[in-house]
Structures
1.
Amino acid sequence: MTKPCILCVSITGSLPTKENNPAVPITVEEQIESTHEAFEAGATICHAHVRNDDQTPSSDPEKFARLKEGLMKHCPGMIIQFSTGGRSGAGQARGGMLALAPDMASLSVGSNNFPTRVYENPPQLVDWLAQEMRTHKVMPEVEAFDLSHILQAIKMHKDGKLYGQLYVQFVMGVKNAMPCDKEVFDYYVKTMKDRAPDAEWCAAGIGAAQLTMNEWAIAAGGHTRAGLEDNVRLDRNTLAPSNAALIKRAADLCGKYERPVATWQQAREILGLRMPA
Ligand SMILES: [Zn+2]
């Protein structure tokens, strides 16, 4: 049997609003409902940011706590991953929710340009976030916006700075950062295989690149992410009706490449995560 494919749903993010797509979940209650639908469609990791009521990004640990509680109740077994990304706070506020001990948290290990700004990840902050994750036994998913981030992740893991198994996500298609490019993608995959053969990787694409990256990752034996954070459309003219619809599309692609969609038990086993109590 080929390796099951782990599907991660990126439910909300920091940027898309109801004006972009009314299906973007903003309140914690909406987030729980939207994640539950995606869980039923095959997603086993929930990558989450939280928002203020006016839709602006938040890093309020109290909101993260309510989200975690609701997800554990309504999506039992699902892997909970909180974002420590830089749009929702500055400096150490980005890691304020790590004490809640989610299964995973995203971790950026280098800087790059974003559509309208610099995505700043200074070494001291990266090390502090990684240390906080070790303290609270939170496995990072390293967000790689560039080849140098992959090499840095491998080095940090070898140096014992990252808790748990190494898990790297290739992100392509962010404006002003690495475009969705098949040769580069193939080199990313080769780099992981050659230099971190025991590690797992996944891939996410922004906008129209979401579907492309889903297919490349599934075909190449990796895991993949879909959701309204990264892409609010099914195609140029059609808004995605839900996070679940984007996950279903990825699950259908798994069928095309004869990859079973991982159950939450399989996903936890592949990533070496503890089973829920
Ligand atoms: Zn995110």
2.
Amino acid sequence: MSDFEDALSFGDSDISQPMSPVQALRKRRPIWDEQLAKEIPALQEVQEFLNEDDSSLLDDEDGYHGCPLPSTPVDPASFDREVVEALRSGGLGTLMHNAHEAEKEFMRKVWAASWSVCNFRHLPSWLQDNDYLHNGHRPPLPSFSACFKSIFRIHTETGNIWTHLLGCIAFSAGLLVYMTRSEEELPLPDKLALGTYFIGAIICLGFSFTFHTVYCHSEFVGKLFSKLDYCGIAIQITGSFVPWLYYSFYCKVRRMMVYLSFVIILGIASIVVSLWDKFSESRFRPWRAGIFAIFGLSGVVPAVHYVIEEGWVNAITYASLDWLILMGFLYLLGAALYAFRVPECFFPGRFDIWFQSHQIFHVLVIAAAFVHLHGITEMLTYRMSIGACAVQSAATVL
Ligand SMILES: [Zn+2]
């Protein structure tokens, strides 16, 4: 085979049957071919870049053309003409130079390309979650850096990402403030009780923000992080119970331990359910909302117990029951909006980017978390003001 034929033969050419230069060029695979991209790492970067966002390309439904990736029209006739012209005008050298220039131009266009948001219909099935959101979806972005860069673009997940990212930062700062207090200001047991709550909130909000950022990476990554997202909710609910039970039953240690044990068992059960593969499917949305709502509502049992024993006024004054009820209301409202996809179910396509049910749910979760923080810090203040338990007899600790 001559150098010329060799240069035009790409990978899978059958060298036992020489082909003409034109046939060889026709056989050449497109540079964005999936298999070729796997073989050549640099092309994976090209594919990554193809998936870059361009928020300015938010399409309305009518004018929408899907999630366009660059395509290179392969016109056999133009190849024929190019080869013939090149051979006539300058031979092999010119042909190779032209091919090289064309390839450089193609690469430049590819790097300059950017991904655009998608219509729901054009998403792969594993990214189709809420069909009431019509436009503004991110296409699959099989690169973590592209996923994290998309935080700064406008799409259906922008609000979901930022609500819990900012919440995560706020609670991290809160943890730092409380944990750096002196032993006199905040003794170690109180630091542990409050710290459990802060860490639960940080894990929940952190997992949620990460999930919403990377779930368009691939089906595997999406499922993995959705499980972590649900685990985070279970951890936050558990973490919310700990300081409330700790201060409510401060002087009744056995009772406190029984309730804490139940909460931890329910928390572990919720995490196990969250790890179930099918749990993240969109048809299980009401089940997800229901299971976490029931877990949260299980707090009614120790709350009622406290009211029966201490009376309503004491429950409000010393156990922050009013804040607890407000927190429960906010969580339940958020869960209901999430489960029934309000308001987008009434106006499909109107809340694609802002004020969709999931964003409202996120905001209500943050609000509920701060309400609960306020409630447990009031309980902490009360506990620190009265000091140790008055009488530690067997009757009072049970
Ligand atoms: Zn979420």
